């Protein structure tokens, strides 16, 4: 058991930021995930044109080897598109595959795209006041389908870990793109078996 003392942390409901500045967010830009977008040419052009910030999230300094710890924080995913594909997170399986995660929508609107190693796929919309349960075994990627930052609070088992490799190699089976001004879920042409 780790020796974490009780503590309180503030997260602004709209911006998602820890306004007291007690923790600093990690940022990911288009350059951090060019190969993940369906239109890599559009992604590279955006990197050249200033490399916009896609999202930032708070990872706290809690022990990552203790199943009794709960990791938590907020993700702030900005609105925008790379080609026709909405801004999204990298997405990951948990290293301990069977561990789940809960997201609670604070502001903005988006979608969680999920899939299992066996090839089941699912997606759920998420907005303010909605709690989304991502069961163990489901890889998860957040997507901002709106015009405001998508802000979500998350919590998961402390030792769950992030497995990015599988998604980086194979991609997701589905993509979320804008079609006729609306989000559409389509097959990912770059997905590898
Ligand atoms: O890890 P990414 O796929 O880049 O997503 C960024 C972050 O999003 C979520 O909110 C997760 O709970 C975090 O554990 C994760 O690190
Ligand atoms: Fe996760």
TrEMBL record:
Superkingdom of the organism of origin: Bacteria
Metal-binding keyword on record: yes
Keywords: Gluconeogenesis, Glycolysis, Metal-binding
Known catalytic reactions: alpha-D-glucose 6-phosphate = beta-D-fructose 6-phosphate
Listed SUPFAM superfamilies: RmlC-like cupins
InterPro entries: G6P_isomerase_prok, GPI/OXD, RmlC-like_jellyroll, RmlC_Cupin_sf
Gene Ontology biological-process entries: gluconeogenesis; glycolytic process
Keyword Electron transport carried by entry: no
A GO molecular-function descriptor: metal ion binding
Enzymatic class: isomerase
EC number annotated for this UniProt entry: 5.3.1.9
Record-level GO cellular component terms: cytoplasm
Pathway assignment: Carbohydrate degradation; glycolysis; D-glyceraldehyde 3-phosphate and glycerone phosphate from D-glucose: step 2/4
Family in the record: Belongs to the archaeal-type GPI family.
PANTHER family in alphabetical order: CUPIN TYPE-2 DOMAIN-CONTAINING PROTEIN, OXALATE-BINDING PROTEIN
The name this protein goes by in its record: glucose-6-phosphate isomerase
